[in-house]
Amino acid sequence: MLLTHRWSSLCFYFCLSSDNPSAFFSFFPLFEVFRSLSEMTDEKSRVQVSIRIRPLLKIDKNDKPIVHPLDETSLSLSDDKKAPKSYQFDHVLCGDQQSVYETIGRPMLEEAYKGFNVCLFAYGQTGSGKTYSLLGDISDEEKQGVAPRFVQELFDEAQRRVDEDTDLTIKVSLSMIEVYMEKVRDLLAPRQRGQEPEALEIHEDSNRRVYVKDASVHQVLGSERTMQLLRKGNANRQTAETKMNETSSRSHAIVQIAVTQEFATLEKKDLECTISLVDLAGSERQTKTESSGQHFEEAKKINHSLLMLGRALNSFSERKGNADSFISLRESKLTRLLSESFGGNSKTWMLATVSPTAYNAYETISTLDYASNAKAITNKARINKSVRDLEYKDLVRLRAHLETCLARENTLVVDNTQRCEVLSKELDQLLGELEVCRSDFTIENELENALVEREMLLMELRTALENSVVGNEDEPLICFSGMIKVAVGSVPMDTIVPITAVVPVFDFVGPPPLLRCTIRVTEPVADCLAVVVEVLELFHLPDFCSGGARVSLWFEGQESSRVYSHFVAPNAGNPQFSLSQSFLFDSAGEKVRNFLSKETLMVCVEGALGIV
Ligand code: ADP
Ligand code: MG
């Protein structure tokens, strides 16, 4: 960049805009910004070199033409002294102003709108048509040079784009400086008559981009205002009458137009570019202009800066590498200002103008050689994202992102509060359940302890029992018992009645034990009667009753009168008893039958384990 435009300056400000502020706040992730930044890649582009052959003019005084176009890209130079030489360029132009614009200006405009910096510089001998080609007659449509045509189409295209895209705002600004006698001057700043215009300084910003400090920048809305400024700047150029050109330009003039395409929507990338149009001072030999004094000094400086520019061209040409480029570019103000256009971030066009006549042969050859060198320069142009706007958009995106985060956090806080309440209730419930569980656990523990205690008790008892069994062989262990009830009321008097009764035994599989006994009721003597019971034998004593069996007798309700037999050996399942017992009753005058009907004889049979 040659100049850095100060957007915050007090200059008046116009923009082409279609407002859609709401679009600014649509969310666009931050990484998109950085991704788009990383997408900016350099594009190699060779400097496009065109030669324009000026037509014969009055000034040529019927001098012989020596430069002849061969076709659209080549020409030949037939100097009397040397053999004809042909040159090849990107374009050889002999046509009118419109054709020059279409060949150079329009492609530049297209690249500028893509976001590339573009630069056109006109090089050539004084009077060969540099200023005519670049500016021409701004007021005459036919004679307008590249710059006014460019400006016109720039705004036409801006309007078309803005109409097409409601999110788009295009801003255009203009500045114009000249380098005269190695001094940089603002061509658009107000000038006081008789006073030397202020010399400006060339600075570098933090990105090492060169700019002219305090150069005025004019924001422009339309082509008319831009033309006005172009005219004003051109009029302010240092001119002096020389033999070569009545209003010969003695300075290098640089017109710079900055275009920014800003999109209200964050999804579209903002673009900015700088268009530099450079009208160099004449490249002729000093002797030819017959200049002396001030003019001689001017010529020296001009030649020096053009020489340096030539060296810079050489240093940037692919053939020679760029080892000494740094020194060359800093050698003169001009090369410093044009540093971006050669080998830097710019797509560059060179228009070399030549006079066709033999009188100018030396300068023409020099110009053609100079231009041939420039063909080899390759720049690394890249699409310029608007840095200023990127920062702003970063902030907008960051804000949108943070707002979204905040909203999400707020929702989370509400959600979490509600969840906290629910969880706290659940926690209370769980604590209650835990308490119940804990007491259940205590009960279970207690039960288990009780169970253990019981088991221990049981074991103690079993041990005691075993001990007792082992220690007392006369006391057998009862393993079954069954009870028979006999109602004695139906027994006839003084008759021995045999009874065979089943002894009920629980859970016993096999033939049930049977007890055989007799019963006799005696006649009462002095109100006293006797019931005589004789137990005889037992059948089907279970096998496990290895300790034999015993029988006990008593009348219901008179437990104290119970009598036991001895344990009788099993006798292969039929132990024989010899138990005979008389039970005496006082009938007390009652009828014997009535009396006996109330009495029930209880007979208990018990089987024993093991020991007899
Ligand atoms: P330079 O800027 O190179 O010193 P100018 O652009 O001032 O030269 O041109 C010198 C003169 O020649 C001017 O009068 C200009 O009108 C005329 N001239 C230059 N080129 C052409 C051209 N292609 N057609 C017609 N006239 C031209
Ligand atoms: Mg000129």
From TrEMBL:
<feature type="domain" description="Kinesin motor">
    <location>
        <begin position="46"/>
        <end position="377"/>
    </location>
</feature>
<keyword id="KW-0067">ATP-binding</keyword>
<dbReference type="GO" id="GO:0007018">
    <property type="term" value="P:microtubule-based movement"/>
</dbReference>
<feature type="binding site">
    <location>
        <begin position="124"/>
        <end position="131"/>
    </location>
    <ligand>
        <name>ATP</name>
    </ligand>
</feature>
<dbReference type="InterPro" id="IPR036961">
    <property type="entry name" value="Kinesin_motor_dom_sf"/>
</dbReference>
<dbReference type="GO" id="GO:0005875">
    <property type="term" value="C:microtubule associated complex"/>
</dbReference>
<dbReference type="GO" id="GO:0005524">
    <property type="term" value="F:ATP binding"/>
</dbReference>
<dbReference type="InterPro" id="IPR027417">
    <property type="entry name" value="P-loop_NTPase"/>
</dbReference>
<dbReference type="GO" id="GO:0008017">
    <property type="term" value="F:microtubule binding"/>
</dbReference>
<protein>
    <submittedName>
        <fullName>Kinesin</fullName>
    </submittedName>
</protein>
<dbReference type="GO" id="GO:0007052">
    <property type="term" value="P:mitotic spindle organization"/>
</dbReference>
<dbReference type="InterPro" id="IPR027640">
    <property type="entry name" value="Kinesin-like_fam"/>
</dbReference>
<keyword id="KW-0547">Nucleotide-binding</keyword>
<comment type="similarity">
    <text>Belongs to the TRAFAC class myosin-kinesin ATPase superfamily. Kinesin family.</text>
</comment>
<dbReference type="GO" id="GO:0051231">
    <property type="term" value="P:spindle elongation"/>
</dbReference>
<keyword id="KW-0505">Motor protein</keyword>
<dbReference type="Pfam" id="PF00225">
    <property type="entry name" value="Kinesin"/>
</dbReference>
<dbReference type="InterPro" id="IPR001752">
    <property type="entry name" value="Kinesin_motor_dom"/>
</dbReference>
<dbReference type="GO" id="GO:0003777">
    <property type="term" value="F:microtubule motor activity"/>
</dbReference>
